[in-house]
Amino acid sequence: MRRLQQIGMLAVLLLGVSLATSAAADEATVRAARLVARMTPAEKIGQLQSSAPAIPRLGIPAYDWWSEGLHGFARHGEATVFPQAIGLAASWDPSLLHAVGGVVAAQARSQFLATGLHNDHGRFNGLTIWSPNINIFRDPRWGRGQETYGEDPRLTATLAVAFIQGLQGSDPAHPTVIATPKHFAVHSGPEPGRHGFDVDVSAHDLEDTYLPAFRAAIVEGHAGSIMCAYNAIHGVPVCALPWLLGERLRNDWGFQGFVVSDCDAVDDMTMFHHYRKDNAGSSASALRAGTDLDCGSAYAGLGDALADGRIGEHDLDVAATRLFAARYRLGMFDASAPTPRDNPDANRALALRAAGESMVLLKNRANTLPLKPGDRIAVVGPNADALSVLEANYHGTARKPVTPLDGLRALWGEKNVRYAQGATLADGVTVPIPSTALAGLKGEYFRDARLTGKPAMTRFDSKIDLDTDHTPPASVLDASGYAVRWTAQLLPPGAGDYTLVVRMDRCFDCRGHDPVRLYLDGHLITGSAGGDETLSATVHFDDTHPHDLRLEWEHSGEDQGIHLEWMAPADAQLAEAAKATADADAVVAFVGLSPGVEGEELKVDVPGFMGGDRTDIGLPSSQRKLLETVAASKKPLVVVLMSGSAVALNWAREHADAILVAWYPGEQGGLAVAQTLAGVINPAGRLPVTFYRDVRDLPPFIDYGMKGRTYRYFKGEPLYSFGDGLSYTTFAYDAPKLSTQSLKAGESLDVAVNVRNTGTRAGDEVVQVYLAYPDAPDAPRRALVGFQRISLAAGEQRSVTFHLDPRTLSLVDADGTRAVRAGRYGLFVGGQQPSAGQQPATFTMTGHTGMPR
């Protein structure tokens, strides 16, 4: 007993757990220390790597720490797919983020328990969720900006805390899952070169812009883990940066969880940063700095580091105890754990609510929207009927996804909706072959991975655009192995050269891709026995006569989906789009980007895109020509932007009748778009990023200085501002009332404002509060300090209050010191950023009070 008490006390000392820590948390730490004390050094090292092996003699099953839940439980089969994070941010609704986090957690735990509490759990089947991404979306060129909550520290922090609390639940000692805010810190592209990038960031920008959301995630959200990033700061890789992981994270912010590296970040320290000569040295540096868990296998080098004294066994004990304390808190070793209920109908309703709240109406000339119920609608654009723009990246497999074309047909009826794809996304980029070009597409589905015997099922499909990650394309099949034969008549819209492509979804740790074969008019034109991710063939058609098409797919590996795509002649597609508008009452064009051109470290190098990032923020020329073509019909033109980032819609702002930003809206996104166009949903989303006019308005992408970036420091004229968004109703504000017009540094300020719905429809309004600072060096032009999304019936009035604490009223000076400073301040309250000539409510601050880091 005395030995066990010593181990328990050692654990408390090792982890710095205060006496105020809850009894259950202490128990988890003590149990973890007891377990770690029984391990050999080699076993401890194994447990510090993300694919932690089983230790049968201690009753420890294998556990892979890597699971994802950015906007739905990801990469482990069917799960609710909510709007991409940037779309969730456009809701400006913390309660929504909390609810989404709760569904992610429930589905993750349900899948974990379904595998068996004491069984091995592989990748993406765990309770440690590596989300949210709370990096600041400082530049629209960054392809992963879609994963964030936008460009503002306050909006990002508020939404992050809500999402983390939704994930982890209300009991800190027994979280539903553990959240992992990432990527700590100062990480936002470029994607090419990210593994060895060194950020030269000022002390001011670090404290003012890049760290506040992470601080809130830990101090307010109490996230149980955090992920360190690939980049270095001032020459030191952040996963080996003692002042960041030790002084700031653990000492200043009181973090008691575990730190995990971004995947292969420790190996990057050797290979790309050249920080140490081998992985033993890099691993030792990271472990001593405070990185407990290596996503990868570089920590295998800790054995050599231990042998030559670069680390001690004490260092292994600290990290391993933190990790096993987390597993005990999660109930991974308990005899029983409650199985959460998965309510598909409620989750689908929440996905629809989330998509609806994310819609941002930027233009509505002459009340073009809502469209009338009996309107004949021409639907055009490469994003009208594509699965990828619903699911985005880091997603699960959507149940019954609804594309915009599906949604419009559901509300207006098929006879009132004419569809033409009209264009590809960009030059050199393929898109799914549309249903209009595949007549009689018959799918024969076989129960094994060979096309033999009688099909288990035959059905007619509209297109071949499938996500089958851990999920078969039909319920009669087993996910582990099946085969499909599709046959159809390919209907080219015009003469010319066509590139036909079979694309297999990226899979992780693949042994190889599934065998596929594509036939045209009975001839094999491309195929693979299982080695290629993308197969293509270019063919020429002299006319529009139909051609026999056959695609065979033998699924036996880890491929996560199959897509039949093309690049069709531009003139033929434009002509088809023009024809579709001939008898329409309105044209709805679905344009934008896709996760295939903006995203994480993509193999894309075409005009406007490189490696997952963008080199041009304008709408690709192929889509601009489509808009010009359909606008020539003189029919009302509604442009729906589907993307994960800001797109310079300069032509549309001038010529389109309405502009709606739908982001990547999740599994119910198509229905939400249709309901918004119909007026069933009154849009109230707000931009979480600035829409610039041209890439030339921005500083160099590699420059992490905030001067000239985001609404807080950009002095130019944006296309659309952060916080912008219209409604089908109108709102009016009384002058805001302050609790005082003079306060001392360290005191709080309360603000109240009356808001009225002055229109004829019920609607939501996002009340925004911006602080204008005294003439202080490095101060932002203005900064968001509060916001609330409220619902008002037609004619309803409500008083909305905000409490601004001293930290909210503080400033950061050039050396990174945050303090409340004397001076005269202004507050702007309204439904957007202050307009030209708007007068602020002013107050005076006296004295000076420093703020904790």
From TrEMBL:
Q: Which residues form the signal peptide?
A: 1-25
Q: Which organism is it from?
A: Dyella kyungheensis
Instruction: Note down the stretches annotated as region Disordered.
Output: 833-853
Could you tell me which Gene3D superfamilies the record lists for this protein? Glycoside hydrolase family 3 C-terminal domain, Glycoside hydrolase, family 3, N-terminal domain, Immunoglobulins
**SMART domains, per the entry:** Fn3_like, PA14
Give the taxonomic lineage as stored in the record. Answer: Bacteria, Pseudomonadati, Pseudomonadota, Gammaproteobacteria, Lysobacterales
Positions of the PA14 domain? 436-580
Q: Does the keyword Signal apply?
A: yes
Q: What is this protein called?
A: Glycoside hydrolase family 3 C-terminal domain-containing protein
Q: Which family does it belong to?
A: Belongs to the glycosyl hydrolase 3 family.
Q: Which UniProt keywords apply?
A: Hydrolase, Signal
